[in-house]
Amino acid sequence: MTTHLPPYWLRDNCPCAECRDQRNGQKLFQITDLPADLAVAAHTEIGGNLEVLWSDGHRSRYPLEWLERDADGDGRTEAEKRLWVAADFRHGIPEAQWAAYLADPAEQAAVLGAVRRSGFAVLRGVPAVERQVLKVAETFGYVRVTNYGELFDVRVEPDPNNLAFTSAAIAPHSDNPYRDPVPTLQLLHCLENSATGGDSGLVDGFKAAALLREEAPADFAVLTRTPVPFVFRDRGTELRADRPLIEVDALGRIREVRFNNRSISTLRAPAEELDAFYAAYRRFAAITLRPALQLEFRLDRGDCLIFDNVRLLHARTAFEQDGSRHLQGCYADLDSLSSTLAVLERRSAALDAIAELFAGEGAGEYLGEAVTMAEHMLQAGALAQAAGAAPELVAAALLHDVGHFQGTLHGRDLMQGQDNRHSDTGAAWLAQWFGPEVTEPVRLHVAAKRYLCAVEPGYRERLSEASEYTLQVQGGPMGEEQAAAFAALPGAADAVAVRRWDEQAKEADAATPGFEHFRPLLAALMR
Predict the structure, then answer these.
(1) How far apart are CA 406 and CA 392, in angstroms?
(2) Residue 370: its pLDDT value, please?
(3) pLDDT of residue 411
(4) Residue 177: which residues within 8 A CB-CB, separation 6 or more?
(5) Which domains, and CATH codes, for the chain?
(6) Could you tell me which residues come within 8 angstroms of residue 157 by beta carbon, excluding any fewer than 6 positions away?
(7) pTM for the structure as a whole
């Protein structure tokens, strides 16, 4: 395995706590800190991991699955997009209801994923009130303030400083190409659209650029290497950015399109270069106007369009001033959207892992009780919810016994007379995603049983046979000093509450919601 991996690459990617901050993954060393003669002294494969002993004595462990993974990117180039033509959406465009988007992390991830892959999505039923577009942007990132302010109104203005603020048709274009960096996302929220006309249009600029590369590679090359002066000026603003119409990365993949004929200023170059540029520019512009690439739809009151401003070109048909057309817009950035999407996907993967434990090993017996492990934990969560407990306590009750699961966690050896410390194991595992408001009641729920047996008359007598047995394995009732120390802990009361639900959650055939019922609650609590 290590013979084909450069030692500095391998060591630079060591994931251990000595090399990386475990909270954020940032490296704790400089590349120059590594010895000049760094080499692998020994290596072995154990349990799906490659373990490496280095020549300087350091030890590293790498998951084999991670080592074998293909190269990935930042999601910004054509390689990671779905390039499209209008007919690809004949069955409907990416859309979701605002209420569902807010309530369901999976729905939010689907919307943001559509923006990332296809370049756009529409939220329906967004309250048609002033400044609501800012709240939409804040669900996934931050508003980008420009010379137009934190938001702008798209309607007919008496003294417009931009063609967008008239009733004229607008050809496919990207916004703010004269900025560096350009706002990479745009949102348009419809407050009113009763005018005749004024339909919205989108063109996949990456698809148009890919067609240019296929049909006229020389023209494509011209547009990727010619810096174009984009300029905007009014009474209070003077902006300029010199960038190519089509920007590619170091591997030649399309990464950004800036296209706005209204903002291209005077290009200065030798005559033959100008001839080549204008021939390529005209060819590219003609491609963007092909009907097959034009996706048209109408934004109605309450609709909010989110789209990638360095990929998609947006347009508008002319409209009559026989009714009101009022959109509010703002800018944001793709990095924040991508960050939010990555966190949602990370949380979803974690919830999938927990769900698999419930569905798999959770079907197994629970310490001799009349319920399975999953039924026990689901009952505990349901009891907490029925009692009106705070979400974090519902989560703690639901997850309190994850430390009993084998493989991923520890093992169920309590009934063989060995304390598996499942409360500590479970809390440590859950700490990957949940804060102490969830993990502390889990960590302390065994201690809470020992505490209650010491201080509450009659509590011990109500324990099931299995619970009485495990009480002895776990240390028996607390002594007076131990009980006093436990009661003084900040999380003691919550742990006691979880413990009571734990003891009650052993009813055979009790009607209990499944894991999916609790999934949104868990997702909202995850870090």
Answers:
(1) 25
(2) 86
(3) 42
(4) 230, 241, 243, 258, 259, 260, 263
(5) 2-67 (3.30.2020.30), 82-340 (3.60.130.10), 360-525 (1.10.3210.10)
(6) 165, 166
(7) 0.82
